[in-house]
Structures are given as C-alpha cells and as structure tokens.
Write a structure and sequence with these properties.
single chain, alpha+beta, Pseudouridine synthase, Archaeosine Trna-guanine Transglycosylase, Chain: A, domain 4, 3 domains, nine-stranded mixed β-sheet, five-stranded mixed β-sheet, 19% helix
Length: 309
C-alpha cells in the first residue's frame, strides 16, 4: 500500500532488535513516520542490538558527525572457537582447549588501549577493488584487508558466566570492529574466540536513555500522532541540533542567519580569529539552529545549512 510522504525533521534513537539489518530497521521506522527522507548513523549487524541513530529530513545533514562519533559496546566472547565471520553466524575454522582466567584477561587488556592497528574482518562492508569484502568472502574468495589505526578509549572486563565466556565493554572511535577485538584478544591469550553477543550502548550523544523500540515507534505513531512533534520520553523525535551538542556554538543575528542560508560568509566575533584553524562551529539564531560553519580568518563560512522553519 502506497502512503503519502511528509516532511519529518529530527532523530529517532532506535534500540535495534536482533535479526534485522540497519537498513531494514530504518525502512520500518521511515514507513511508520511516512518520512520523505531518512538515513542511519552507523551500521549494526543483524546479530547485534542497541543504539541505531536514525536521521530524518534536515537531520540527515548531520549524519557525518554521528558516523564519526565515539561509540560504546558491550559484547561477549566465546573462547575456544573461531569462525569465518568472527561471530556466531559463520562456520568454525579453528578450535582451542585453552581457556584464559580472568587475571590473564585483565593483564592483556592494556595492550588494546590507545591507538592500535586493527585488521578488519573479512566479512565487513569495506570495499576491495570496488566490491564489498563480505560479498567476496561469501563467494569463497580469500579476502586480505590491511591493518588500519583505530582508537580504543577504554576496554573493560565486566563479567564471566563460565570459563568459556567473558563479557566486555569498550569505548572506541570510528572504524573499530568489535569482532576483530575479540579475535585479537583471544589470540593474545593463547586461544581463539568469537563474538556471541553484541550490543551498542552509545553513539556520540545518543544512549539507551534516549532510545525507543520498534514497537514503541509504531504505537506512538498509530495511537498518539501528536507526540511525533515532541521529545522523548513522551514523544518520539529528538531535535536536529541534538546530534551537534559537542560542536561549539555561536549566536548569530537574524540578518546573519539569512546570509548563511543564502550561502554567504559572515563576520565572526573577535575571538574567532584566534581559534583553531578550520574550526567548525554551530551557528544558532534566536529561532534555533541555522548552520554549521567553518572559521576562515575573521569570517565564518557555511558548510551545512539547515532549513527548519
């Protein structure tokens, strides 16, 4: 059944359920909202759950800042079995009888703090000669990906259910693969392992305290359509500016706001000239978010303009 599309501007912080892709989750929410435009801020595998920021309308212009944001994950490693996919989906490729104790795990974790070189999983969305690595891997081709630097801010052991399993939380920068962390930690501990549970707890400013389930999205839209225009917990949409809270804010006049929306640079305050070169700032008029701008000497040039009125 075809549905009419409407302009929807803002964020839905979805607690993605198990068993669907990020694209499928976006499609379900977008259909519920009848939103004309939408995108998601960072892929979660079907076997992963948790925070999936969904941007609608003007919020899609802020997606790059969310994709690049730091993230927090909770995950469980099953020691003794390594798989092709480094999670429970793939067939076993290696086994080990060794099971590290908690003291050995704790001693190994500091080696993964800071900037580390990480080889992404063969089953990943990274492109190799124009093809997705997971497509090549599923076709049976050998996929060799180069190591790349990633940032690990914290890596904690948070639970042991038994000798075979250990649960961790990691705070990390963009591009970090939890499945690769599980592989590399297991091998450092003299065994092998794979991820059996993965849950994303935070993406930038979006955490579980702001999240809604698919069922709640559908119930809110169907039973209380007015709540589409208010913020959680009673409503559904978070304002576009929510994703940009970490970017320094500058107040601008109504006249400057009009110039920015026309794509013209404005004069910045005196303090701007002494700021970090190429600093990105959030430009706010009395009516709300106007644009993101880049400092260029005494000027501020618009790089993303938002049309929210």
């Amino acid at each position: 059944m075809k549905r009419g599309k409407r302009i929807v501007n803002g964020w839905v912080v979805l607690d993605k359920p198990l068993g669907i892709t990020s694209t499928q989750a976006l499609g379900k929410v977008r259909w519920s909202l009848a939103a004309a435009k939408g995108g998601h801020g960072g892929t979660l595998d079907p076997l992963a759950t948790g925070i999936l920021p969904l941007a609608f309308g003007e919020a899609t212009k802020a997606l790059p800042y969310i994709v690049d944001a730091s993230k927090t994950y909770r995950f469980t490693i099953r020691f003794g079995l390594e798989t092709t996919t480094l999670d429970a989906e793939g067939p076993v490729t290696a086994t080990s009888d060794h099971r590290p104790d908690s003291a050995a795990i704790e001693a190994a974790l500091p080696a993964f703090h800071g900037t580390i070189a990480q080889v992404p999983p063969a089953f990943s969305a990274i492109k190799v000669d124009g093809e997705r690595a997971y497509d090549l891997a599923r076709a049976g081709e050998a996929v060799e990906l180069a190591a790349r630097p990633v940032e690990i801010h914290a890596f904690r052991l948070v639970g042991r259910d038994d000798a075979d399993h250990a649960t961790f939380e990691v705070d990390c920068g963009k591009g970090t693969y939890v499945r690769s962390l599980a592989r590399d930690l297991s091998r450092m501990l003299g065994t092998v392992g794979h991820v059996t549970m993965l849950r994303r707890l935070r993406v930038g400013p979006f955490g579980l305290d702001r999240a809604v389930t698919l069922d709640r999205v559908q119930n809110l839209v169907e039973n209380s359509p007015d709540l589409l225009h208010t913020s959680p917990p009673d409503g559904l949409l978070l304002p576009v500016v929510t994703a940009l809270d970490d970017i320094p804010a500058l107040a601008v006049t109504a006249g400057d706001a009009r110039a920015l929306k026309d794509g013209r640079a404005i004069n910045g305050p005196g303090t701007v000239q002494n700021s970090v070169p190429d600093l990105v700032v959030r430009l706010m008029a009395p009516a709300g978010l106007v644009a993101l701008g880049r400092v260029d000497g005494p000027l501020i040039r618009p790089v993303r303009v938002f049309h929210l009125d």
